[in-house]
Amino acid sequence: MADRKKPSGKQVAPAIGYDSMLSGVVNLLEQARRTSVRAVNAIMTATYWEIGRRIVEFEQGGEARAEYGSSLIKRVAQDLSTRFGRGFSKRNVEQMRLFYLKWPIAQTVSAQLDQTPVITEFVRAFPLPWSHYVCLLSIDNHEARRFYEEEALRGGWSVRQLNRQVSTLFYERTTVSRNKAAMLKKGGKPLPEDAVSPEEELKDPLVLEFLGLKDEYSENDLEEALIRHLETFLLELGGDFTFVGRQRRLRIGDSWYRVDLLFFHRRLRCLVVIDLKLGTFTHADAGQMHMYLNYAREHWTHPEENPPVGLILCAQKDHALAHYALENLPNKVLAAEYKLALPDEKALVAEIDKTRRALERRAQVKKP
What we know:
The protein is of the alpha+beta class. It has two domains: 22-210, no CATH class; 216-366, Trna Endonuclease, Chain: A, domain 1, CATH 3.40.1350. Helix content is 57%, strand content 12%. It has a five-stranded mixed beta sheet, sandwiched between helices. Helix 1 packs across helix 5 (119-125) and helix 9 (170-176) runs antiparallel to helix 10 (180-187). The two termini are 50 Å apart.
């Protein structure tokens, strides 16, 4: 009689039906994440509409008045940013004001904001996410704006699809088309690049700002530590560097970017934009830096200040590089002055190497 095998202590999940069960769990989690995002978006959109209403009514009894509105928007943006941090720039607060003016809904939502929030009422009043309304606010034509809103609702468009349709003049093309039904059917189909995953929805910058969360968790721990050390190192060089911000976010078109460090150099009277890379330096890094500098010169630089300068730092494992982007300066004299006043690139490279090695040794010691 053959010996029976003794059952092992390790339990193996039955293969039959496991894939189906796992698929169901994955779908459940994804649906829960999307439901959470929709709930946050509904409350966020209703809150921003209410903020816009209160600003407009404070301006002039509910009537818009441009000359007073601009200074009021600026003051509100400054006070809210001081108290709540990101998400309340002058541009964002102005969008809330315009949102109220262009979407005159029933006052029931406004009344509920002072009571216990009822999410279903918010969804009914504002069925699209706030990022969709931000896109729609950029459309001046009332009919076109209503068309895109209705089509986004009917077709369940993601914000990527909505932005793509607006940028390719889908409304104008549909208007002049002889077969509008075919145009709507064909044009409303999403493309693969229009898809947005639940993770991307949760990490939407607008959602993160509203919840008061930071998106630095997506950055490498080593990079974050290097940035913090570099900030301290530059401040210790003397009184010329003044700290402005870390992970300073900017929006160009429909894309969000982040500047690792932003300083102001008192003697040069200019901003210093610093970008840290953990990999090899590429021409794309230089192009991105010049894009940052163009944005900083237009949006962050005051009239009496000199053009900003960029510092690209590459901290790859076997080689470090520091390079100042000075090509955009208006004359060679100014460029020479910048080179004399800014820290030596070799000193920066040495500091990056020393800090990286110290951080890596510390990480090895912490490992069990």
